[in-house]
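re: that chain from earlier
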Amino acid sequence: MSQVMAPPAPAEATDMDPALRASPASRDVRLAALPSAVPWARRVLRHMLREWQLESMSDPALLLVSELVTNAVEASQRCACLDDLNDQSHQMVSLTMELCETSLLIKVWDASPGLPVLREADVTGDRGRGLLLVDFLADAWGHHDADRGKVVWCELSIQA
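^ sequence. v structure.
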């Protein structure tokens, strides 16, 4: 587990099953920054893992995407409070899943400039453990500035 500031360079899935090489190695989806984005993100990831024949990664990958999208939705909602209150449009978040040669890269974009902070867990609270879970489950994670916001990403190794 390590946090770094820029995502690893994606690699091509050349040593994978030939059927996987023929399928897209990444998927991007935009979701409204609402609580419903989290189950939609899980549904899309579950579909992609099935398509890439990586269902064995489902449990940790689904938990990671849940935490990253939840954080992005909450950050977007905080950011929206600072915007014009008369604007009724919803903020958006973006989820990108990339199948690399040896790992799955999950990236989540939101419009908030606030950077993620890894905190000590409050055992009595019901919030604040998301990045601790990401730090524990992911092989690497980090964040970087992106077009009018930020990207928080994590990488999960593909077990042979």
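The chain has one domain: 3-157.
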